[in-house]
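User: I'm curious whether this sequence folds into something compact or stays loose and floppy. Could you predict its structure so I can see for myself?
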Amino acid sequence: MDGHQVIRRHLADAALAVVVGALVVTTAAFDDDTTAADYALIVLGCAALGCYRAAPRAVLAVATVTGTAYVLHAHPGPLAALPVLGAVHTAARAGHRGLGAAAGLFFLAGYLATGPTTQEIVERTALLAGWFLCAVATGLADRNWQAYLRQTEQRALEAERTREEAALRRAGEERLRIARELHDSLTHSISIVKLQAGVAVHLARKRGDEVPPALLAIQEASGEAMRELRATLEVLRTDEPTGTPEQLVERARAAGLAVELTVTGEERPLPDGVDRAAYRIVQEALTNAARHAGQAKVTVRLDHGRDALAICVDDDGLADPARPPVPGTGLTGMRERVTALGGTLHAAPRASGGFSVRAELPLEGGGKGGR
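Assistant: Here's the prediction. I'll summarize afterward.
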């Protein structure tokens, strides 16, 4: 529950206490025999209602004792029972129906003793007994309804989690199928090309002939293709990051990109989903900067907040706000990752020139554990 909800609940509880207190005080004001002590008992019993969520049994005790003392001293009408009725209802709602019933009987005994055993006082006591019975019944009904709502919400969350797990399982199975297909179809063909190119280079050198540059290029390109294909197949099989954003920055620097990294906030283990998404976002942003930003300076900022991880990758490259780029596979995949975690993403040219990627990933619901 966030701070706004807590404040609204406290205000609602205070409003309940004020409304009940206003009704009882207004009724008491029409009785000329009401004293300052009576008003103090009324205010104390009604004010206690504002704390019924935190301490329902204590509120029940205070409201019952002050209410009984007030009726024994001032002999008021049935509306004096309102604070006790509210306390009995909230106690039954919290599961203390026995204590609520006992408090109601205690108050009724005090109210019955406020006058001679006449038909009027008996009728009023019977009326109040019905009210207290309703207070206990409605408290129990409210408790059962809240339990039903919690169970329904839990079942919905469980069903959503099951659907997500099934989707992840299907996605994993599809990645493995694609990896197998790529391995069976491409790896064999590229291996044959690499082998034949290597044999041709070896024979040419053995005969003392000059090796054609095209043949050397084929041999080198096929070897590079094999390495990239293996790396791609590894990603398809695992979908796990192979390092940290800090390592990505170091690799980018080693490749000649001017990158500056800033980390703020309290670093701690991130949920698995957030950890993977943060790695992929920084990776894709640095890759795009290396491809499209030219000799640009890139800044990477990671802000570890209490509820979210903020990622900002800016460059001062050639991107122009008047000609925004068409989102490719990289930006689309980045947005899908952020959306799946319930976060936000802004990826667009900056007004001052260059490109900016800003993502905020909530830390809740991203899975447990760190890298």
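Summary: Confidence is low (pLDDT under 50) at residues 365-371. The first strand starts at residue 258 and ends at 265.
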